[in-house]
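Figure 2 data, in text form.
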Amino acid sequence: MTETKYTATIGLEIHAELKVATKMFCNCKNDPDEKRPNVNVCPVCTAQPGTLPVLNKKAIEHVIRVGLASGSDIAGFTEWDRKNYFYPDIPKGYQISQYKYPLVANGAINGVKLTRIHLEEDTARSTHDKGDFSLVDFNRGGVALMELVTEPVIHDAKTAGNFARELQLLLQYLGAGDANMEKGEMRVEANVSVSKDPKKFGTKVEVKNLNSFRTVEKAIEYEIERHIETIEVGGKIVQETRGWDEAKQKTFSQRLKESSHDYRYFPDPDIPKMMVPEVFDLKKLKADLPELPWQRREKYLKFGVKAEDAESYVGDRTLGDFFEKVSADFAGDAELVKTASNYVSSDLVGLLSKDKNLKYPDHKYFAEIIKMFKAGDLSSRGAKDLIARILKDNVDPRKIAEKEGLIQKSDEGELKTIIEKLVKENPKVVADYRGGKQASLQFFVGQVMKITKGSANPQAIMKVILEVLK
């Protein structure tokens, strides 16, 4: 199999449940953690005769803000449509969605161009593990669901996975959704094709309901290989919908792929059409956007921190906020900031992950430890020990260091007295050094640290040793 002969083309369709108190078209509670089936239901979301849907304004606002954050075009006019298809988890026999006039068009996230973002209602949840029949739970039916569609401009699985990760972060930063994939609050569908001609698309296959970033990447990689292998042996790719089998680590055929005309879209006569700028102040919504994931990432990289540390601070905003507060105490000193980042991302994170009862310390205490270390008052070991102490007790680290003898001694006069005595007592080590064995200096460093019970500054020790040996 020669993969270099082929170009893979991937487009993503991502559904995300929005963080709103009620469902999209009724006042039923939106509670993704509800375990009891069919509790959050009403005549509207179960499609009882004579009921009418009413729009959830907050859900619409969330989608508009996602569009504004991604530099997209916000619709002047929009409407809702009926997407007709029969399935047991759709009580009306159609799903209320948007077809011709989506709320958002164009824009980009993480360098990937967007086609559209629109609003619809989620379906109910079917379970098939009770024997030879299925059960339907309508708690999720009618929940506000954002659907985002990318342009077919992705060419590898890693880029697709990173796009989904960035979208999840964006939804969380905006407060538009938790996008917890394990709970099904964000679901990815990948449209995959391969072609020998990079200017043409191959036959598209859709892989549905991918519920983790790893699965997104695995399924796309599998499909690319499957397409190439099929073509190489003279086979033909069929346009279809496929699922992902986690146990077998492969996709499987579900049904032939529908086209838009199969759904017989038409405007929902029960929902008023909307002139968006008459209902929402777009300038204010844009001005009120918070700092976005990519803006925060760029800021951290400008601080000079490692890329993996910056990613940690973007992914965990509590950690990122703590790091920023610590850095603010350094008045722009880049070396202090980088040193702080190293201790935050390794020691602080490590201790917090080991003991869930620990809490973030006062950021000024943490900054003080970094300053003491860079000034030579603390060894690296001493800094680590103090970080552990302030996590536990949240007390002034300098007072602890002074009380427990952790402050490194840099008094050259005192060190010179100790080292001169050691030089006289160890003539062979001195001879080895003068004979070219540089490593013999470590003997004196170790002895001084032993005599001072680890409180001497290693740099100061080395400086005085060299002066004495001259």
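Caption note: The longest strand covers residues 7-17.
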